[in-house]
Each structure stands twice: as structure tokens, then as C-alpha cells.
Amino acid sequence: xxxxxxxxxxxxxxxxxxxxxxxxxxxxxxxxxxxxxxxxxxxxxxxxxxxxxxxxxxxxxxxxxxxxxxxxxxxxxxxxxxxxxxxxxxxxxxxxxxxxxxxxxxxxxxxxxxxxxxxxxxxxxxxxxxxxxxxxxxxxxxxxxxxxxxxxxxxxxxxxxxxxxxxxxxxxxxxxxxxxxxxxxxxxxxxxxxxxxxxxxxxxxxxxxxxxxxxxxxxxxxxxxxxxxxxxxxxxxxxxxxxxxxxxxxxxxxxxxxxxxxxxxxxxxxxxxxxxxxxxxxxxxxxxxxxxxxxxxxxxxxxxxxxxxxxxxxxxxxx
Length: 319
Fold this sequence. Notes:
The protein contains ten helices and twelve strands. It is of the alpha/beta class and 319 residues long. Residues 13-69 form the HTH lysR-type domain.
């Protein structure tokens, strides 16, 4: 083995150096954990392991975040070089060979994966099977990831396409050297047990201010809480789950109300629920982020075209 590689391997897992770079840029372990979609304890363990491997302290913890030591400042320079090298290699390979027939790596949030993305991939597979002489069969790999984690995976070169969402009152996601492609709107419905709305009396968020709430993932929960506060009340959260089917099961059993995007009900619609469209709730936009050097690759454009032919919205909608 080359002496250069042998010495490098004694440092430990190179991924820890990239994680350290994320912590240094974020200014605290908590902020970095939120940005990359990790738990803070797991990230802290990796930082402790990196410091042990290097034999130095990389930063001091303070009430306001972290302060890099001299060793940490040097390590950050090298971490930036490693990140640039990894993304540069990916860019060089894409420029020279395109995707080269390999699997296209996709990351998307759960409700998008089980709904529109699964439908689009199925459409492509069926088309390739029915027309083998004229339609190219592409290969895809899918992982579930909430938007912050998906963006980090894309930035680090671990995936080729990140499917993300943002509420209409938020700024669209952005990454340098990546194209942001809008795939359309995904309306949010207020889900209430049918027996709680038999008289059709629920028309606004304020009408459910006294009812218990079922909240989803961290970003969805943040949006729901913001909308409720805008309507003049603090939601009383009773249950938390990021599983669309579980949210609907809880609602149908009269255990609370929830906000859920229509796309999440494409394949998991549950009986006993009134899905009410409320103007003040608004919509969220779904986007695909693709490295600029790949945004014209046929594997990517064929998938995006298939997604555009699908309705992102769900069903059983009550005006």
C-alpha cells in the first residue's frame, strides 16, 4: 500500500473530517445536526472520535456555540480541501462520462417517495418494458431523507437528485452549482375526524383551536405551529409521527386533527376523515435540485418529465 494512503488511513474515518467542517461552518453542534439531519449526540460522538484520532482538541464548547482552537482552524482548512476534492471528482466524472449507465441516486421525503416518486418510477419501468426497442431503461436508487438531509447528501455528492419542499411563505431551497427545478404545488389539507365535522362547521384553523393536534416531521410541525399562531392560537400537540398513514389513522380514530399535504394521501388515504381545504393554510412547493452538470442527462430529464405528468395532489378533498 502507498505510504501516503497508509498514513491517511491512520487518521480514521475521513467522513468525520467533513462532519467537522459542517460543525465549524454552522457554529455549534446543535445547528450542524439540524442542517445535516443528524441527532446531536451522534454528531458529538463523531467529533470526539475525530479528536481522539488526531490527538488534539479541535474546538472549545461555549454557551454560544463552539470556538475553534488553533488545531481546529488548521483542520477546517483540510476539511474544506477534502470537500472540494470529493465534489470536484464527481463533477469531473460527470463531465467526462455523464451518468455512464449507473444507478441514478435519488433522495426524497417520505410522502413524496411513496406517492409521486414511486408512481413516476413505475411509469418509466412500464414504458421500458412495453417498448424495449425504443425506450431506454434507466436504473434508480431511492433513499428517504427530509429536505435538510437530502440537500446535505447532494452537496456532498452522495446523491444525484434531491427532492425537497418548502411552504409558500418560505424561500425556495438553493445550492451553489445546482439547478432548482419546480415540480408544482402540493396543497395542505386540514384533516379532521368526520364525526367532528358532520355539520360542516369547520372552515378555518381557528375553528379547531381547542382540539388536540397530531404533528408530523420537524419541518412540517414548524409550519403547522406557525400557521396556527398566525390564526391566533397555540396548537395543543397530542401526538407526533412522520408516517402519513399513522397520522391519518390517529385522525380517523378521533384522536386529533392534522395538516397533511395532498400528495401524502395518494396511496394511504384512510376512511373516516374529512379533508378540508382552507385558504389560510396555503400550499407547499415541491422542487428537484440537480447538479448543473447533470440537469440535461436523459436519466434525469425522463424522470422529471414523468413526475410532471402526475398530479401531486391527493384525493377525497372537501371544499
